[in-house]
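Appendix B, Record 12. Input sequence as logged:
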Amino acid sequence: MIRPVSAALSAILAFGLCGRAGAACDDLVDNLITAKLRPVIEDLDCSVLKDLGVDKKDHKLAGVCYQSTGAISQIRIDTQLHCHGSDQSVVGQVFGKHNVPSVSENVTVEAEARGSDCTVTDVRVKPSGELGKVLANLFDANGKARDALQQALTQACGR
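Logged structural output:
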């Protein structure tokens, strides 16, 4: 069942999710974060791998887990990044569609937010490859993904 946004925000405020301890992921806040981050993650640019002949992206936001422990809230964001060549790429045309290059990387982002005002205070990305480095840039202080995360938390806290 889909609740109107105002009802969802009222539920968040009623349960005090931005300042109360919880042991499990909070589905409501997870969904708010997912809605804001999914388009940013799925649009991650593959151009850093253009020399390999990749021209298509297929990134996924695999999961989000928001947990509030009172003063500090923890957020875990799991991504699956994938860039590949198409039949139209130079490599695809030369070597055939079954031999197009493909690069994948799973990257986890860990963030913290202040429970009192839901402000993102820290974001950690540990990339293992070039795609992860691009994702890390999206979560830096001025990055689109960090901004989307902050917008979701601001919405969740009703500010």
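Confidence is low (pLDDT under 50) at residues 1-22.
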